[in-house]
Design a protein that fits this description.
Blueprint: H1 12-30, E1 36-39, H2 40-48, E2 56-61, H3 67-85, E3 88-97, E4 101-109, E5 115-123, E6 133-138, E7 149-154, H4 156-168, H5 175-186, H6 192-198, H7 201-217, H8 220-226, H9 233-236, H10 241-265, H11 269-272
Parallel strand pairs: 2-5
Antiparallel strand pairs: 1-2, 3-4, 4-5, 6-7
Length: 284
Amino acid sequence: MILDANELGFSAEAEMRDRTQMQFIAFLARQGAHRFILKGGMAMRALYGSTRLTKDVDFDGAESLSQQSMRAQMPKALLQAARQAGLNGVEVQQTKAGDRSSRWRIAGRTAEEVATIWEVEVSRRGVPPADFIETRPFETPIAYRIPNFNVRVYGPAAMAGGKVNALLSLNRSVPRDVYDLHELIRNQADPAPLWISRVAREFLVRKRPEVISKIDRIGFPLANSELLPYIAPAVRSSIDEARWDEIRLDVAEHVDRWFAYAIEHAKPAEELHRDADEIDFAGR
C-alpha cells in the first residue's frame, strides 16, 4: 500500500509535488506509454511502496521514442497532471534536449501559494533486457483520487544495477542511491544474474573497488542534508550517524558479494562479443 505524502508526515508542498508526479505518470500510462520504463525513486514506490519521496521522475525510453514525439507529449502530460492535482500558475520548460537525454521542469504554486518544482528526465541510452523489466500495478494513495494503473518499471535486478551505475557517476555523490540499495537488499534484489549475462568480467573487476569506495565516501552529513528531508519522518528519526554507518556497511558488503559472484561466473568481453565498457550495470 502506498501512503500519500500527508499520511507520511510531509509538508503540503511535498504532498503537492508527490500528487502531481503520480498524476503525470498515470497520464502517460493511460496514453499507452509502453515505450517508457519508470526507474528511480518513483519506481521504488511502485515496487516496494518506498516512503522516500523524490525530486524528479526518471524514465528510460525505447530507441523508437523520438525527440519530436517527446516534445509534443511531455508538456501536455505535465500540464494535464498539474491541472488535475490542483497546482496553480504552472510553467513547463524543456531544460535539456540532447541526443541521449531530455529533461523538462515543471513549476507552480499550491493553493497556499507555496512554490513547488520538480523535473522529469527521459534517457535514450537503451533499456534492460525484457526479462528484467516488469509491468506492475501502481496503487496510488486514496487521498490523491487517481485510479490505479499499470506501469512498466525496472525490475529489482535492473533497479539495483541502475543504482550501481549512479554510484559510479563522476559528478554524483547521492545518499539516496545507498538508501535505495539498502531497500533493494532488504527485498532480496540481486543483479548478479543480469551482470553475468550482460557485463564483461574485465569491467566488473575494474569497477568493483570504485563502487565500494564511493559508498564509503557518502557520509552522514551528506545523508542528513540531501536524503533525510525526503524520507518519512517516522523513518527519518531512526537514522542517526551510527545507523547510517550500519546502512553503508551493509550495502557495501552486499554489493561486494554481488561483484564477487558475477566476476566468478562472467565471461570476458571477447566471448560476449562486445567492448568491455559497452554495457552498464542495468544491462542497457
